[in-house]
Amino acid sequence: MKIKNIIIAVGILLLGIVIGKLMFSTNVKNVTTSHKNETAVEHWTCSMHPQIDMPEFGQCPICGMDLIPKSKDEAGLDPNSFKMTKNAIALAGIETMTVGGSNSNISENQGLSLSGKIVANEKQTAVQTAHFGGRIEKLYIKSVGEKVARGAVIGKFYSPELVTAQNELIEAIDIKDAQPELYQAVRNKLKYWKIAEKQIQQIERDKKVIVNFNMYSDVSGYVSEIIAQEGNHLKEGAPIFKVSNLNTVWASFDVYEKDIDAIKKGNKIAITFNAYPDKKITAKIDYIDPILNTKTRTVTARVTLNNKTQKYKPGMIIAGIVSSKHSKNTSKTIVIPKTAVLWTGKRAIVYVKPNPDKAIFELREITLGNVVGDKYQVLKGITDGDEIVINGTFTVDATAQLLGKKSMMNKKETKDEMPEMDMKKAKPKKESTMKCAPGKCGSGM
Asked: Are residues 226 and 136 part of one domain?
């Protein structure tokens, strides 16, 4: 019986040792696995502030929330780069283009490209003024764009001075034989006010005062501005309206400061018109503004065009290519579609795809030059070979904003721009040290 009990006790002891060994080895394996998983995560971020990138687990330095592991795709990315899924790219219709090569359409052979518009020839602009002081009873010029011919009646005017002058003329008629010089002086006064001879003769014949006088145009052309209105009281010489003679117009181009040396008076320029895609004319630059516009950093280059057929309308958008032996465009200039550019007031930005094999995007600020049709000339910010987004740019920017990355509306996301924040080390997570008396912590314990 004793031997039987000893055998049973030894068996139980052995069984316990086996079970203990199995349990211990499992725990070691789990600990090792857990440790491996922990050390595999080398980057930590905040779910509320995705721009946070920490090398170890802790709390967000902005909001204090526990950090979470970054995905393998996010780990190692630039702070302002972000990834989009293929499905999101397809749904948003995002398209990209590689800058340079055949996409660059400004070269040495083509010369310097300029943008501009048709404007009225200011040398052919005139102002119609009031011949005498008085009140406008009726004005026949009602709208901008009306054609006015020299000698046409432009309105009816009441003038107290004219009423007085007519009475003087009627009295002078009776003494013109005795005092012809006085009679002639009174008559000339009306002529100086450009009263028609026909009206003066009517006054002498009827010996009646004319209350409202016709005023006749001194100029001819198209009305470009109406200054006075019916009922206005005007002094002699006050402007009534402006006219422009459009038999000749100016093709006015903006030349950026860096390109000033590339143009000279007399340079040939090939001009194309948005309104007439198939029309192209060649002319010579006859004027370059000597003063730089400090707001746009441009000067105006001008060409005078014959416009007897009235085909060229002021305000038309045009483009020109200047042929110049001294042109600075000795290499290809980068141009990109207007759809690629987002404006934030003073900033112009595009989204670049740094790696053609990965759907990763980042914002890039650029400096623009001339407008060439539906494209912009890029002076700074991107180089040949860069791949940029040309369609779906707003969607890409919206994604950047949602992820807290540098975007059109958000400029301060970089590590350097965060105010007094230690980005090298996260705040260590502190365990609670609060001790509660029994029944005081709300758990019933």
From this structure: yes
For residues 149 and 44, what is the distance between their CA atoms, to the nearest angstrom?
Answer: 80
C-alpha count within 13 angstroms, C-beta hemisphere, residue 231: 0
**pLDDT: which is higher, 354 or 70:** 354
What's the structural domain count of the chain? 5
CB of 376 closer than 8 Å to CB of 319:
no
Are residue 341 and residue 315 in the same domain, yes or no?
no
pTM confidence score? 0.49
The more confidently predicted of residues 88 and 52 is 88
Beta bridge partners of 129: 239
Q: Please check whether residues 70 and 87 belong to one and the same domain.
A: no
How far apart, in whole angstroms, are the C-alpha atoms of residue 89 and residue 98? 17
From 274, 289, 323, give the residue that closes a domain. 323
Distance CA 110, CA 106 (A): 6
274-323 per-position pLDDT tens digit: 889 888 999 999 999 999 998 888 899 999 999 998 899 999 999 898 87
Cβ atoms of 279 and 247 within 8 Å: the answer is no
Instruction: Tell me: pLDDT of 224 over 70.
Output: yes
Q: How far apart are the first and last CA of the chain?
A: 51
Helix or strand (DSSP H, E) at 234: strand 233-234
Q: Do 145 and 116 share a domain, yes or no?
A: no
DSSP string across 74-102: TTT--TTEEE--HHHHHHHT-EEEE-SGG
- Are residues 400 and 343 part of one domain? yes
